[in-house]
Amino acid sequence: MRLKGSTGQARAQRKRMSLPEVLLWRELRRWPDVRFRRQQPAGPYSLDFYCAPLKLAIEIDGISHDMGDRPERDAVRDEWLAAQHVLVLRITAREVLSNLDGVIRLIAATINDRS
């Protein structure tokens, strides 16, 4: 599912994660039974967090995802990922910052459903 050059781009994105991404990553790393990767290349895209065995992607959406053509681009991306049998769980950055425990419960419930 990788494209040439996408690994280097993903590596650079790992170095400049947003605060909500850092907070969520800190929690996801603690789970012993489920392993997520950060900024995982997937075709022409880079996924914020990805669990390969469950084919589960978690995207942290900041306010920019509500502006311009971004909603349409996100929809195209989600359709492409769905065709790859990847479930995309979109969570707002605001939700991560204000309700991290609730976000973790949502992710845990989704993992249980996919297992």
From TrEMBL:
- Name the InterPro entries for this protein: DUF559, Endonuclease_DUF559_bact, Restrct_endonuc-II-like
* Record-annotated DUF559 domain positions: 7-111
Please indicate which superkingdom the organism of origin belongs to. Bacteria
Extract the Gene3D superfamilies matched here: VSR Endonuclease
Which SUPFAM superfamilies does the UniProt entry name for this protein? Restriction endonuclease-like
Its name, as the record gives it, is DUF559 domain-containing protein
Source species: Sphingomonas gilva
- Upper taxonomic lineage: Bacteria, Pseudomonadati, Pseudomonadota, Alphaproteobacteria, Sphingomonadales
